[in-house]
Amino acid sequence: MSNKQIKAIKFLAESKHESAKYFLYGNEHALCYKSRSHCLKNLDLQSLEKIYLNLDDDNFEPLLDQHLMSNSLFNEKKVVFVSMNKNRLNKDLIRKFKKIIECESENLIIVELSNLVKKTIEKELINSLEGNAMFIDCFPPFESEIKNFLEFNLPNYLNRKENIQVFLELYEGNFSALLNDLDVLKILEIEDEETAMGVFSNNGNKNNFKLIEHISNQDKALALSIIDSMRTNDRNSVALLIWILSRDINAIKRLLEGKNIKTLGIWENQIQWYKKISSRITSKGLEKIINEINIIDRKFKGVLKGDPWNGIKDIVLRLSA
């Protein structure tokens, strides 16, 4: 049986996929994250037991067998996330890959290979090993693929040739930023063309993903400049900031608890920023910030009196200290 190779941008458009073994490779972080989430589509994440293994571990094979063969009484299915730090293959690693591809299990296996080049994966794994695994190419897509993706994914009020051409020029070489801004539309519940195009051209919203980097580096001025830009260009973007800060604070909380944060949509190259913040904040201090986020949200919704923007600035300053 032959392994299946598919571009991530096409994989995301599939409503169903029957494979139980997925290999994600490439350096477009947003595609890796969205593809990983799409592998779990239609599964009950609450009842899904999650296991994290490293392919470089000497005990990888017995650990894999142990987790695949024994399901918990309280979980219907498991998903085993496998990572690898090395940037080249050897006989030992190829043997482990062969074991994954050939194993029979109803549980899911998701392997992420961000450090291997495309040529190595295609030659040494996809074309050399027999099995029924799905290899998902998360390298940056071609312009024609992005065009098809936009035609399929843009909301009706935006889905025009003129707009698609603007997006292709505006986000050339940065597909992750395009995906980020498409998510912004959903978060802000935007439903008209003029407001939506403002989001894509607005530098304040466009740079919101840099907020956590500035906070991590304790660069208060740059962090606050993003807040000021978003406030100036769109006062309703406070909803987006509440969502961003809630996600980031949850990630820091999980790190303090020794838990994995990739499942929150944190890209591999961003984890370092969260670790820096978690190293200078206590659990007690974080709980206070969580309470403040809830107060800001209630002010934004009009339940409490006060300016939510001031509260957001206070939290950014505390996290940057």
Task: Fill in the keyword field for this structure.
321 residues; alpha/beta; globular
In summary, what is this structure?
With 321 residues, the protein is α/β, with parallel strands linked by helices. It has helices at 8-11, 29-39, 60-69, 91-102, 118-126, 143-153, 161-170, 175-188, 193-201, 203-206, 211-216, 220-233, 238-256, 271-278, 283-300, 308-320; strands at residues 4-7, 21-25, 48-54, 77-83, 108-113, 134-137.
Helix/strand layout:
Layout: E1 4-7, H1 8-11, E2 21-25, H2 29-39, E3 48-54, H3 60-69, E4 77-83, H4 91-102, E5 108-113, H5 118-126, E6 134-137, H6 143-153, H7 161-170, H8 175-188, H9 193-201, H10 203-206, H11 211-216, H12 220-233, H13 238-256, H14 271-278, H15 283-300, H16 308-320
Parallel strand pairs: 1-6, 2-5, 2-6, 3-4, 4-5
Helix pairs in contact: 12-16, 13-14, 13-15, 15-16
